[in-house]
Amino acid sequence: MINAEIIFYSLGIAGFVTIIILSIVLFFKMQAIRQLQNEINQLGENLNALDEQAKLVIRTDMELNRTQDELDKKISSLYTLHSLSQSIASTLDETQIFNRINPDNLSRLGLEKALAFLWNEEKAPQLELNVGYNTKEAALILDYLEKNKNAFFALLHRHKTTSSFDKETSLVPSELKGVFCVDSFIISPILPKQGTGGFLFVGTTSTDNPISEGDKESIDILTNQIAQALDNARLFEVTWHAQQDLETKVNYRTRQLSNALEEIKQISERKTDFVSAVSHELRTPLTSIKGYASILLSGVLGEIPQKIRERLDKVNQHADELVHLVNDLLDIARIESGRAIMKRESQDIRLIIDSIAELLSVQMKKKEIKFAINIKEESVVFVDKQQIKRVFINLIGNAIKFTPDEGRIEVRVKPNQNFVQIDISDTGLGMPKEVQEKIFNEFYRVDNPINEEVKGTGLGLSLVKNIIEAHRGKIWVESELNHGSTFSFTLPRSK
Questions:
Q1: DSSP-derived pairing of the beta strands 344-348 and 197-204
Q2: Rounded to whole angstroms, how far apart are CA atoms 111 and 285?
Q3: Nearest to residue 359, comparing CAs of 74, 5, 318, 351?
Q4: With 90 as the cut, is the pLDDT of residue 441 above it?
Q5: Helices 149-158 + 135-147 axis angle, to 10
Q6: Neighbour-count burial of 90, counting CB atoms closer than 10 A to its CB (0-12 exposed, 13-18 middle, 19+ buried)
Q7: Closest CA to 391 of 474, 326, 334
Q8: Considering only 200-204, 217-221, 350-354, 437-441, which range has the smallest mean pLDDT?
Q9: Distance between CA 59 and CA 65 in Å, rounded?
Q10: N or C end: fewer C-beta atoms under 10 angstroms in the chain?
Q11: By the 8 A CB rule, do 195 and 210 touch?
């Protein structure tokens, strides 16, 4: 009996403990459930907020798309209007002005239909443009214009563009929509300063893309351009025909000049051939004269008096000068005729300049001239080395000749993408403007004290010019009297 009571007592305690444990577990589960419910509620609020933000983003995106579409339409219209205006302005034929307005242009402007007519109070309206209407529809519209011409002429006299959304107008928009078979439209007067004016009508049947205020401004600009084109066509018709006559005369004169140029070219070729032939013929007697003079001076044929020796020295000196002149003439003739052989190779321009500076250093030291070379980066040119050396010898030699004692000569090299520019500047006498274009001519010499004292042939710069041009370069000079000169030329860069 006691054992049974103990068992029941133990079971009671165990049940009580179990109830307590289950109560605790239930309590924590309820807490967890409430926590989860709060999180669910918060999540719902977040989802609602995200939904609102998504809706806002979608609305904003739709508005931006609409704005972008409108902007694209305006930009497209402006480009089309610009192209159309240029096309209209490019003709002086009145019959072609309205032909430049075609369905493609109108479509890019967001329009489907167009009519243009010239009209004055003495004559019936004359149809100049018809896009989107058949013959019967166009006839009905012209009949309507005749019946309501007072209202249209009132609009014409006010110089005012009107549209289907304008309220203050002598025309009835709803009536015009029916007559012209459109949902929205623009009527703009064409007002040339001379002759008959008229109207341009444009419209669209689309309710999704109605005509706007911007379209009205564009059409107003277009009709102004048409009016200007009509003025040009009418005012310059006589001038146009005169221009045709002038062009005929110019073509005739051009042919004459071309023939004259061809004759000059032939004369130049004959001159070159003549110079070449004469120069070759001069070489033989010059060689003989110089040879006999050298033999006499050597004393092989006996002792000669001092006075005769002095005269023989002059003969020898002048023979050398003539040989130099003949050689220059031959070189110029060969280059001009294209017979000169140019051995073009890649050359470092600095090495060429250094060699010429060394060659002429004695002359520069004698006059105490400062010589500077300014090359910022390595420059390799594709040239005939010996011919380009002659160019530098001539140009730097001239600079030494015309630069006073203690002067300065500078050579600057400026590489470019396809060529190298060389500038040779001095602090010498300079030259006036009027002779700068002549100095590259054969036998031309500037009139100055130094040239009066020092003899020359006047062929050096002509030879330089021909060598530079044979290398597909160009040469020019910038100079001011008593302020020095700068000779500049270009040479092709090595690839």
A1: unpaired
A2: 90
A3: 351
A4: no
A5: 80
A6: exposed
A7: 474
A8: 437-441
A9: 10
A10: N
A11: no
